[in-house]
Structure to design on (121 residues):
């Protein structure tokens, strides 16, 4: 498994299934967590299973069509558009490297920087 989607709500579960189908069509190995556990435990279970990429999905992510991405090695990678995540994962899979090592990958600005930028405008 290359990525595990961690839905926060039942609605997110359905949305995650759709994202997983898209990923599988691209040849990626993606699974959706059943969501029976607390989020912290879902993350810990995925890390213990050595899943390289986890993506937390709640109402905000569904509305913005993004995934809150977390790497087992690099930690929190921030919120990224679904299409970007799938494309980066596909490229990483082809090169057998970590997603954050793919050329052109940029870490999103920290949440504090986003707040400062919006206050400056």
């Amino acid at each position: 498994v290359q990525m595990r989607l961690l839905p926060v709500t039942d609605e997110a579960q359905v949305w995650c299934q759709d994202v997983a189908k898209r990923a599988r069509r691209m040849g990626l190995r993606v699974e959706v967590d059943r969501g029976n556990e607390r989020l912290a435990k879902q993350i810990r279970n995925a890390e213990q299973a050595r899943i390289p990429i986890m993506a937390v999905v709640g109402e905000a992510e569904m509305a913005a069509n993004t995934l809150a991405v977390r790497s087992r090695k690099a930690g929190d990678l921030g919120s990224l558009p679904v299409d970007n995540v799938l494309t980066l994962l596909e490229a990483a899979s082809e090169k057998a490297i970590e997603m954050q090592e793919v050329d052109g990958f940029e870490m999103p600005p920290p949440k504090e920087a986003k707040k400062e930028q919006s206050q400056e405008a």
Q: What stands out?
A: Residues 113-118 have pLDDT under 50 and may be disordered.
